[in-house]
């Protein structure tokens, strides 16, 4: 029954997406074309065809990206992140279509109206349907009835988690002691009757891995059309997003989720990087680049740009571009900038405080060496040193480095003489690797712009 409800909400959500798209399209048309006559059939036919294409392509992209998938533990942030991915891919598909068409002329103002209406509308609809889904699952009559076997730490933690999160949609109807012997036919029959009486849909087993009765509980569940689940004792406290994949008949535990391992997510992030860096280079570079270059040149002798080798994706070396903020010195590739560093010029201090020294790195982004958002790349000497000192340090290099990142907006930027501060930075970077979404990127970019304007952070 629970699966049927999940499927129902999935179709409701997809239907709401389409309804919002239809409403946004019609409202955008009304705002843009209120001065046109209906008799202009050829012009309106263009938009009728566009209307059909937008609906069909949205459904296809949403299914491929799996943005309409529902499950009890679904987080609003993750669902909204997938929805933003869908919007971006859908917009890219639409743009490719418009570029390829010859003889069709569509209003840019119409598309502006459409996306201004559609994006907030579909986001609001997504949030509301997930909240309604959670409320729906909190009712015991709508939740899956489950049984729990054993009294281990894992079993108790599982039961406590269900009590704290009724929105998971799992109702613990009955528990069974560890000492039950299913080798006894009468005992096995009694348990089967108890499961049937409670309409149990899933059986969670928390017995120790060496327990001889585990296989018997699995057979009992299979014989009574009950799905069997096992609660393993991982014994590794650091793992909190693990999942298991089967390699043939061998289970393999994957210790962390990496959203950017998924090809569609990588495409979305790269597409966003190209679009964002292109806009910055088109809009900001013509004015900001000459002005800042002149200030740097006048501040001290030396080149305008500072080039340095840094550790990038998969620890591959690349050359990062920055505005030079220090007087030319022989220690730039070895010594990190510190507070009141005498090497930093007055103009350099201003550029660092407002992150303007990083502006040329949008060229690195456009080239594919960096991303707009990601862990900050370190000097090669620092990578060699910190990988020996800090666990998970190299996890940062599983994705492209960024101009800004989660650690930076949390204030973990600049000088890192304290090892604990570097550990906190790595912790934030690993969290980003495990929890990437387009929504998280947009949030980090917004906070970075705010900090740039008001000069917040620990830039040195």
Describe this structure in words.
The protein has 3 domains: 2-138, no CATH class; 143-235, Rossmann fold (3-Layer(aba) Sandwich), CATH 3.40.50.2300; 263-454, no CATH class. Strand 7 and strand 8 form a beta hairpin. It is flat. The model has no long low-confidence stretch (mean pLDDT 83). With 460 residues, the protein is of the alpha/beta class. The chain contains 15 helices and 10 strands. The protein starts with a helix and ends in a 6-residue tail after the last helix. The chain has helices at 2-32, 41-65, 76-100, 108-138, 153-164, 185-197, 214-223, 263-283, 285-299, 346-353, 361-367, 380-389, 406-409, 419-435, 438-454; strands at residues 144-149, 170-176, 202-205, 227-230, 243-247, 250-254, 305-311, 317-323, 371-373, 402-404. Helix 1 (2-32) runs antiparallel to helix 4, helix 2 (41-65) packs across helix 3 (76-100) and helix 3 runs antiparallel to helix 4. The strands form 4 sheets. A 4-stranded parallel β-sheet has the order 2-1-3-4, sandwiched between helices.
Radius of gyration: 28 Å
Helix/sheet category:
alpha/beta
Main β-sheet description: 4 strands, parallel
Distance between the termini: 59 Å
Counting DSSP H or I runs of 4 or more residues, the number of helices is 15
Helical content band: 40-55%
Provide the low-confidence segments as ranges. none
Report the mean per-residue pLDDT as an integer.
Answer: 83
> What coarse outline follows from CA principal-axis ratios?
flat
Strand/helix succession:
HHHHEHEHEHEEEHHEEHHEHEHHH
Strand line-up across the major sheet: 2-1-3-4
Topology, number of strands? 10
What percentage of amino acids are in beta strands? 5-15%
Quickly count the domains: 3
């Amino acid at each position: 029954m629970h699966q049927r409800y999940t499927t129902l909400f999935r179709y409701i959500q997809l239907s709401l997406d389409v309804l919002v798209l239809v409403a946004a399209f019609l409202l955008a048309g009304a705002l843009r074309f209120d001065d046109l006559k209906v008799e202009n059939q050829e012009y309106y036919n263009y938009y009728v065809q566009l209307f059909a294409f937008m609906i069909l392509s949205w459904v296809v992209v949403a299914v491929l990206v799996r943005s309409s998938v529902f499950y009890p533990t679904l987080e609003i942030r993750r669902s909204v992140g997938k929805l933003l991915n869908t919007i971006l891919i859908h917009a890219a598909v639409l743009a490719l279509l418009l570029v390829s068409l010859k003889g069709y002329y569509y209003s840019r103002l119409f598309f502006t109206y459409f996306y201004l209406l559609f994006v907030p509308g579909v986001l609001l609809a997504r949030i509301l349907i997930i909240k309604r889904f959670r409320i729906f699952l909190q009712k015991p009559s709508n939740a899956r009835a489950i049984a729990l076997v054993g009294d281990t730490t894992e079993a108790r933690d599982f039961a406590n988690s269900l009590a704290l999160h009724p929105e998971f949609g799992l109702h613990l109807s009955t528990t069974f002691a560890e000492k039950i012997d299913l080798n006894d036919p009468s005992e096995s029959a009694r348990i089967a009757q108890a499961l049937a009486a409670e309409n149990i849909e899933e059986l969670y087993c928390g017995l120790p891995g060496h327990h001889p009765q585990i296989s018997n509980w699995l057979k009992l569940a299979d014989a009574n059309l009950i799905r069997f689940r096992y609660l393993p004792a991982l014994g590794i406290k650091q793992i909190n997003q693990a999942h298991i994949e089967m390699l043939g008949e061998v289970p393999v535990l994957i210790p962390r989720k990496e959203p950017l391992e998924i090809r569609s997510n990588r495409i979305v992030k790269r597409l966003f990087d190209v679009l964002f860096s292109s806009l910055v280079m088109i809009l900001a570079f013509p004015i900001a680049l000459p002005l800042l270059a002149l200030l740097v040149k006048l501040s001290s002798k030396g080149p305008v740009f500072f080039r340095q080798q840094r550790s990038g994706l998969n620890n591959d070396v690349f050359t990062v571009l920055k505005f030079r903020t220090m007087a030319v010195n022989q220690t730039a590739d070895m010594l990190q900038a510190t507070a009141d560093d005498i090497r930093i010029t007055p103009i350099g201090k201003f550029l660092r405080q407002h992150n303007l020294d990083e502006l040329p790195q949008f060229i690195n982004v456009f080239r594919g060496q960096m991303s707009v958002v990601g862990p900050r790349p370190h000097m090669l000497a620092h990578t060699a040193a910190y990988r020996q000192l800090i666990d998970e340090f190299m996890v940062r290099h599983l994705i492209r480095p960024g101009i800004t990142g989660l650690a930076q907006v949390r204030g973990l930027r600049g000088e890192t003489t304290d090892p604990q501060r570097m550990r906190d930075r790595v912790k934030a970077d690993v969290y980003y690797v495990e929890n990437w979404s387009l929504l998280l990127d947009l949030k980090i970019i917004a906070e970075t712009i705010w900090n740039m304007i008001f000069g917040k952070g620990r830039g040195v």
